[in-house]
């Protein structure tokens, strides 16, 4: 078995563990209107790579190589997947990107209506913070959990992901510079990756130096991920991606290949990945191998 | 000066202190797209009674009668006003209640468009949790701040306010029982009042017994507040309310006066207020007077 197939196995196994944990993210005895619960779970169970929650688990284990750190990171992993999922539900709304399909399934509002989709998003966003508080039951200190709440609010909020989405919408008619494009990508995509790696590291008990090195890793990885997304939208395989390609072109979205060309974009992904791995080497981690493998996997992915 | 004018003065003064604090709720050096920041502040500055944040401050001071407890409660007061404000922005959207005016001003989406209004709501909701973490800088312990995060996520989320809004929307064609109506009101309105009193009490260092008594106070007060709202919608003065009356009738919403009659509704408000005050007496508070005064003020309010 080669390194790459081991990585795929690890990712698949972790994704299924996370999906299991998500099933009980809302306590069963909580009174939630049936259709609201169903709408939230519909999108939460809709699949995807589960990259962000996997990064939480993997970063925790990288810093503190035992099963306890990984186990303690599960509530945080669920939290970031709820944030990612809510953002997709709201982004798909008619007033935003107006998408009918996501990962081959009808989007939330096409199934439950716009009002319920807005509320399902609000419910998932709010519950993500509840999930973070549950990490305390797994031995995470109140101070660390509170630091994670603060990071999450900052990186997912108006100065983070929500800000990136706003900049994207405001700029749709006129993103012309690499600087604007980088602002949008930094916040729309990289900020949640930054959160995932940072939160995992905090759960693992990272030192300040480790935190800084891992954040450098996350920022390079996040940008590489986004540029690769832009590339795949142009030349990817629709069946593997589970969504139509060329959507950026059709929506006249400015992308890396559009701004700097395809070859330069591919070279950029390679360079960013190499820099991410260099940052990782500085972090002096107990178990860095899986983070290296994830970086390699992402640069070579075809979906 | 009579007791009631002193209460009005206290409420006005506290509301203006809260409005001052809200102005700096988003750090000035945070990079937030200009229009998103403006959209969030537009609704945050749109006024209102600021009842929920005032309850946070007043509950803190009631438990621990010094200026420090009140000061420490300000970040939490801002947090609950952000939650309340985001819920109004999302409720006003075309897919929800489709309102053009709120407190005499155009609603958020009428000024900034639907996409930006959705994002402004998401940004305020997310930032509320950031605000809670800031209470630590005022001497609140990490454990208490985390308990408040957990309360907020529960009471504002799918099993709280968002759940109440979902039940309201799902039931619009068919709320026929008092039980359904109580579920909707409990979660749409009372849950945030419950949060405000509980969080203030936590900041003030309430004992378990005090917390239980104050939560009983909050649950009675919250329901009284909602029934009074239903009454005012039928017989209130549009100029004082700052919104058209009879809107519930026009939208064929089921209300307390509709279900149990006007006289019985008025008697219910009186009874709930008396019970709220009885609960308060059990709490053995350092400075209960202002909470009593707020309960009396709310039952007699005309807007």
Automatic annotation (TrEMBL), chains A, B:
MF terms (GO), sorted A to Z: (2E,6E)-farnesyl diphosphate synthase activity; metal ion binding
Annotated catalysed reactions: isopentenyl diphosphate + (2E)-geranyl diphosphate = (2E,6E)-farnesyl diphosphate + diphosphate
Keyword terms: Isoprene biosynthesis, Magnesium, Metal-binding, Transferase
One BP term from GO: terpenoid biosynthetic process
SUPFAM superfamilies: Terpenoid synthases (SSF48576)
Cofactor names: Mg(2+)
EC number annotated for this UniProt entry: 2.5.1.10
One Gene Ontology CC term in the entry: cytoplasm
Entry's family note: Belongs to the FPP/GGPP synthase family.
PANTHER family reported in the protein's UniProt record: FARNESYL DIPHOSPHATE SYNTHASE (PTHR43281)
Protein name from the UniProt record: Farnesyl diphosphate synthase
Organism per entry: Paenibacillus baekrokdamisoli
